[in-house]
Design a protein that fits this description.
single chain; about 170 residues; alpha+beta; Nucleotidyltransferase, domain 5; two-stranded parallel ribbon; 4 strands; about 40% helix
Length: about 170
């Protein structure tokens, strides 16, 4: 969002740091998936950003692109968001029998490793003032590149979630 995420920071003694911003509600919508290779234990990050809200059609297109990159059976751990249950997603699941979906409990963000990705992005960009949506998008792409370069960081998203150990790694 164009409204900055505020976090505790350092400042001169007696001077509270301030961040001035225009109260605008501009934002970028995001989808992400973490993949874990069963053989090589490598973790990958796949993301998509867009101006408008995602729909089930967008999610189906994202999954189709993801399935082109990943070989063999794919087990998708998913929250129960409405966009994950649309007819376009159902048709895609029927067309790709190698895609198996397992649902998280009704409200369990602590189990979802992708939530750790968003926490990392927010923490890295905290107290930053974005000029416009294009600036947000550029920052998100830079965050994605930064995280993808670190295998340790990618693994930490899995291990810091509350998933059982065989699923987390």
């Amino acid at each position: 969002m164009l409204i900055p995420t505020r976090r505790r920071t350092w400042g001169l003694r007696g001077r509270t740091p301030t961040t001035r911003y225009n109260y605008q509600h501009g934002r970028i919508s995001a989808l992400a998936a973490l993949s874990v290779s069963a053989r090589r234990k490598q973790v990958g990050l796949y993301v998509r950003f867009q101006q408008d809200n995602f729909t089930a059609v967008h999610v189906a297109n994202f999954l189709r692109a993801l399935l082109q990159h990943l070989r063999g059976p794919v087990i998708l751990l998913w929250d129960r968001g409405r966009i994950h249950k649309g007819s376009a997603v159902g048709e895609l699941r029927g067309a790709y029998p190698r895609l198996q979906v397992e649902w998280f409990p009704a409200y369990a963000p602590e189990l979802n490793p992708v939530e750790q990705v968003w926490n990392d992005f927010r923490g890295h960009d905290a107290n930053r003032l974005f000029r416009d949506k294009r600036h947000i998008r550029q920052t998100l792409h830079a965050d994605t590149r930064r995280v993808r370069r670190s295998a340790t960081k990618l693994r930490s998203f899995l291990t810091s979630s509350d998933l059982p150990e065989p699923l987390a790694w």
